[in-house]
Amino acid sequence: MTPTTVIDLGRQAVEVALMVAGPLFAAALVTGLVISIFQAATQINEMTLSFVPKVVVMFITMVIAGPWMLTTITDFMRRLFESIPYMIG
């Protein structure tokens, strides 16, 4: 296994991790922005007001995007395991 192969595997793993985490991060970011604008407009400074909606939206996002996330991770792992004989030899 050459250093180039290791770097390429690491790059692919980071790409897959970012692709899978992206929808959850985006949902949390948008929810946090909306809640913070609401809190600034109404001058309500309650910590649970920002935490609970983020958790709910991230759960909903995971339910909607979950099958795609699982398929993406499974495909990456399958490709990784299938390429083991070529990496060793």
TrEMBL record:
- GO CC aspect terms: bacterial-type flagellum basal body; plasma membrane
Give the top-rank taxon of the lineage listed in the UniProt record for this protein: Bacteria
Keyword Transmembrane helix included in the entry's annotation: yes
Cellular localisation: Cell membrane; Bacterial flagellum basal body
Q: Name one GO biological process term.
A: protein secretion
InterPro entries (alphabetical): Bac_export_3, FliQ
* Bilayer topology annotation: Multi-pass membrane protein
- Pfam families in UniProt: Bac_export_3
Entry keywords, A to Z? Bacterial flagellum, Cell membrane, Cell projection, Cilium, Flagellum, Membrane, Transmembrane, Transmembrane helix
Note whether Membrane occurs among the keywords. Answer: yes
Q: Where are the transmembrane segments?
A: 16-39, 51-70
Q: What does this protein do?
A: Role in flagellar biosynthesis.
Family the entry assigns:
Belongs to the FliQ/MopD/SpaQ family.
Name of protein:
Flagellar biosynthetic protein FliQ
